[in-house]
Amino acid sequence: MPRFHCPAPLLAGQNLSLPASAARHVQVLRLQPGQSITLFNGEGGEWDATITRMGRSDVDVTVGAHTAAEREPGRAVTLAMGMPANDRMDWLVEKAAELGVASLQPLHTAHSVLRLSGERATKKQAHWQSVAIAACEQCGGNRVPTVHPVNELTAWLKTLPTVDATQPALRCLLSLAEGTQPLGVALAAEKTDTPVLFLSGPEGGLSPQEDALARAAGFVPVTLGPRVLRAETAAITALVLAVSGG
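Predicted structure:
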């Protein structure tokens, strides 16, 4: 059954017009009044719905029963990454959303090729958020990951809260420097529901200075093995290990 993101309060028996993006999708699929669809608003679960009217650019539906379906990983994972160039960032956002990432933080780093600022950065953030929404519509996820505004790595590190017993979390730095441990070992030492924050560099990885700053901010340097992976491959591999329990 086609699934559509509808970021609004939903109640059984409610009549509403779909958001413009969802309405366009319904039009493209050539759905008709009387056909059933599934709606989710990102707050958990999903709703049956029936198309009641098709306009030229708008679509009305009646909301049906709610199903408390949750398909999210057991642990919340945030992925902070030096943005890879070209369309690789789109691919990374899409696959991370499919796997159940909780949020994504795009970063400028010393080795970053892609540089964004001002209106261009805002538009890219909105684009990546729409990529994440489309991925959730396709894969069955009912909670859309947040794509945060683009930030500088050094500035972002200063915003991180202190990790202590009242706010347990695991911070992992994908590092090519000395002193790393296998990611599986770091994950195995934590509870399976402990939140994880991954920091991964762009093409060329983080600079030695950035690597040191991340360690000082509480990040544990980890490795994925002896092979050097592409930036987007490394980030997705780490995410897979985290959501699957290591």
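Summary: The chain is about 30% helix and 25% strand.
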